[in-house]
Amino acid sequence: MPHPSTECRDHALRSVLPWLPQDLADELICLPSSIREGMEEIRLRAERPLEVSGSESLLLKKVTRAHLLHVVQAITGSSLYAVEADLRRGYITLPGGHRVGLAGRVSQSALAQIETMTQIGSCNIRLARAVPDFSRRLAPILLKPYGRGIRSALIVGPPRSGKTTLLRDLARTLGNGTFDRRLARLRVAIVDERSEIAACHEGVPQFDVGVSTDVLDAAPKIAGMSMMLRSMSPDVIITDEIGDAGDAAAVADVARAGVTFIGSVHGGSLADVRIRHLLTDLRASGAVERFVLIGRSGRDFAVQNVYDETLREVTGWASPTSSGWEAPQSLLRQP
């Protein structure tokens, strides 16, 4: 019997099946195509049902400790030591940009810092997908008047809201010159610390991130943004999950260099981001011109609110038409 990955037409699911035990992979392949194509997460918990979620949430056959051990050995190369840096962050990124979150018993240093993880009891495989033209509805929000460029932006959203998918497609459309007919192709630099935006393998992005896009893979964000500024002369720098004052300072350096920054941050609202003082730092530097709050609407993402650099709400930013999402003319004349 061929490995089930050869029988599955969905690329995202097909690429993670080889990491799973054969019987669990068979279980997923037997699901209806509508569920497979809408699948976002595969959760394995020892001695509990296999759980899949996405367009639907289902509990399937029981996951044994042997199943979980198989997955852990496969994704770590049978060496937890070799992936200790990843374990300290709580996840491992697979080829293709899929992230495997892990939970188990942690070992701490004398300074109460996590050193590694053992006795892993559950894992969550988050499938990375490319969604073409996912980003074009942001044109009314990010496009400067008369197509004179794009505004810097921070995408704010909770987990699974589509932040990384949105950044990936922004890189593609900006780097291909297809973001908006009024905007020329731009030089894009991706600082892909977690190897999830472009999913590079041997230096080649596994996702389409644009013909004019350069990727710095697995580099720390702060050092990576500085490197790309010096070496690649980008028009736009894109990175994922800005989190602290050091990241905010690096974003300010990008803005001072005259380069547009687009990034993301976890949060269900601006208040969630404000708690970490990230908003204060970014507002003080003027490095971010639009704060875009997104959330889920079924299988799609939805823009919930947009704020300018002073945190005033921006209104009238989208008007859905039969030909797509177009900006009202009044908005296109805004400074």
Automatic annotation (TrEMBL):
Gene3D superfamilies: P-loop containing nucleotide triphosphate hydrolases (3.40.50.300). One of its GO terms (molecular function) is ATP binding. Residues 149-295 form the AAA+ ATPase domain. It comes from the Bacteria. Keywords: ATP-binding, Nucleotide-binding. This is AAA+ ATPase domain-containing protein. It comes from Ferroacidibacillus organovorans.
